[in-house]
Design a protein that fits this description.
4-stranded antiparallel β-sheet
Amino acid sequence: MKLKYTLSACVDCVAWAANGTIPEDRPNLLNDIHDCLGADANEVIANADGLNAHGEPYRDSEGNEIDSDHPDYELRREDWFSWSHCGCCGSSLGGMRNRLAILCK
């Protein structure tokens, strides 16, 4: 599979992408995702922790990939708080965001 792009996603979308969980208070989550992503909602949506907004691995100032053995590993921002819309479902609620990847075959 090939990376199409990454996006910032709310915890509800991350849980759905990880294991199909749909929160009781968001029964229309799948419709929201389809409305927001359009045809891309039919592509594979996967966790993209460790990738930056360009779909590339995080790198330190010397160009080394920041993996779990790197001393700056904890500085990678794999989740963050944001008031921005979720890039997956369009929710405007503030909250934690994680990166998801849209993959195409």
